[in-house]
Structure formats: C-alpha cells, structure tokens
Amino acid sequence: xxxxxxxxxxxxxxxxxxxxxxxxxxxxxxxxxxxxxxxxxxxxxxxxxxxxxxxxxxxxxxxxxxxxxxxxxxxxxxxxxxxxxxxxxxxxxxxxxxxxxxxxxxxxxxxxxxxxxxxxxxxxxxxxxxxxxxxxxxxxxxxxxxxxxxxxxxxxxxxxxxxxxxxxxxxxxxxxxxxxxxxxxxxxxxxxxxxxxxxxxxxxxxxxxxxxxxxxxxxxxxxxxxxxxxxxxxxxxxxxxxxxxxxxxxx
Amino acid sequence: xxxxxxxxxxxxxxxxxxxxxxxxxxxxxxxxxxxxxxxxxxxxxxxxxxxxxxxxxxxxxxxxxxxxxxxxxxxxxxxxxxxxxxxxxxxxxxxxxxxxxxxxxxxxxxxxxxxxxxxxxxxxxxxxxxxxxxxxxxxxxxxxxxxxxxxxxxxxxxxxxxxxxxxxxxxxxxxxxxxxxxxxxxxxxxxxxxxxxx
Lengths: 251, 198
Description:
The structure holds two protein chains of two kinds. Chain A is mainly β.
C-alpha cells in the first residue's frame, strides 16, 4: 500500500518534470515578419542595434509566459521592444490586415491571439498542430482608428510560453489593405539595396564595402589585395573577400 | 604556435568537462579538401562537446539550407532573391567542406541531423518534405514561401551559433560561430526587406 502510494506520487511528479523542463529553452521561435513587427524592424536594421539590443540577432525570441500584453514577453534582453518611444515604423492599414509569421522551427501550436489594448481583435486556432508554411492571418480591425499598437501572440502547445510581436499601425482611410508588401509608406532606406543589383556595380578597383551589390566579374580591393567577384551577391558583414573564397577570388 | 597558445589559454579558462585533444601527430593543419578547392581553414586540436555538437548540427543545417537555396536559385522570380540563393548556396558549400574536415580531424562522426534535433527537443523548420513542397509553388507565391522559410532557417542557425559562442571552446569554431551570426543576420535583414517591403 505504501509502495503504491509512493508509485502514485512518482507518477504524479514525473509528468510535471517533463512539462516544466522545456520552459525558457524552447527550440522553436517565431515573429511577425510582414508587416514588419518591431522585432523584424530590429532585424532589418530599420532601428539600430544600439536601440534594439538582442532583438537584432534573435527577432524570433521574444518569449515569455502566456497571457501577457507586451512586446518582449517580459524577457529582459528584449525590453527595448516594449519602448513606445523608439522610432518604430508605422504601417498604414485599412480595417483588414494580413500578417505573416516567420518561424525558426515549428512548434505544435495552441492558437494565435491578436489584441489592441485589452480587446482581442483576432483569434486563430492551432489545433495543437505544427504551423503551415507560411502562416498568414487576416484580422478585422473594425472599430479602431488612428495610431494603435497591435499585440500578436503565438501560444505554443508544448511549453507554458508564448512568443510576442508588436506591430505599430495607423488604422484609417477605409477599404481593404493592399498586400502587406505595400502597406508601409515609409521611404526606402538610404542604404544600397539589392533591388539595384544591375545598376549599382561599383567601379573596378573600389574598396569592398558591406550592403553593396556586386556583379560577377567585378573587382574590389580589401586589405591591400584585389579580388574578383565569382558570384553575384549583395555583400554583408562576415562576407569580407578573404573569408569567402566561394564569392571572391584573389587576383 | 599562437593558435596553440590561445587554445590552451581558452582551455585553462573554460575548465569545463568534455574537452578533448587530437592525438599527437595527427596535426592541426589537415585541409581535407581536394587540391583544386581553396584551402580549408583547419581547426585546432582542442575542443569540447559543445564544439562537436555545434559542428555536427551545422553540417545538417547547412545541407538543408543548400537544398532550399537550390530550389530558390531555380524558381525565384526576382533577381535579388536569386542572387541571395546563389550566394547562400556557394558559401554554405564552402562552410560544409570546412566543417566536415574539422569533424574528421577530431575523429567525430558527421552524425544524424534528425536524431540530433530530436535529442534537443527541436522540430526543425526544414526537412526534405517541406523543401519538396516549395517546388510545387510558383511566381510571387513561391518567392514569399522561399524567403519565409530561408529567413526562419537562417534564424535557427543564429540561435545555434549564439549557443556555441557561449559554450564552445575551440577558437576556430567559436570564430566561425561569430561569422555565422553576422552573415545570417545580414541575409535575414536582406530577406525581411524583400518580404515586408523596404
């Protein structure tokens, strides 16, 4: 009898341990990538790393207990995401808004919730299944106008946690929003973008720089040596010519 | 010699269990690549379990990324997405050759990626089925799916590299992890701008 009680106690404790272990160490993360959430704006470089902190490198990791209404998951490393005073880009939208999530791995999902203030403006059941690729939701913002902060929350099934994204909106103008790719009215960044691939080829012999489009065959100097581009690409930190023989051939 | 001194210093500081040393004579200068390929940076001989785990998981992670980038190269509709897919393809092949040579030097197997993920409680974003499904899409729909998956996949690589930076001890491996963080962050920035508009 005593043994059975002990066994029952063990059985009661073991599932609890299994359940608790993954907390704080989920291997699957996610965030809203379109329209650009605050996390995505950090990863894009729209808001500087000095302001964003860790969100630049892990936009997917604003993770915290379920049931919060904030942008960081109350996760200290992501606290800047809660700061309404940072220069977040605002997305203009009508009364319906489409949002797309980016996942770094696919957790079984309880549901998705969307809030403005204390009002839940969107709910999508997850049925404890892995999310689709890509996962896009359309929510109705009727009754709200002007500047609003939308909380987008991914409640996962296999831990007590959720992942948090905030999207700054300007609701108004009526009608349906165009696809997310054209919902922002902010001007293009002043850095060279890869959309100018064919026209931005630097003059031969220029000094290598990040965020520059290089065509195959173009040459640059770096660290006193000359390199020829083997493969068209937009350069970035870590792809300095001596680091990537696949992209740059020393001449 | 300098490399050895750094390795020893790191070992002394780390003082953690599980470190290993390649036996004397096997050397730390193996190149592993064919003579036609550019020389592969060799890893020094002192490493710990975190280094091995990271390199084994990256081998699998790089291969999945290469498979997806090849679909992107074939099917993406914009030149910027095609260029990025092409650059990810060739750079990750180079990294793959390097990492496989390190495992060989250390006497460690390449490992089974799926089992490694399972052991870490992960549900990887990409597998052969997900990659094959992208081939059924076309046009703008393909571009959005491809960029969404690649953004997530490279983001998972950043997570793995940040763990290695904290827990690894082999200087070449932690330096590679730093480069993974920077290059993947740069790629993610480029892709998010294509996905969400500039």
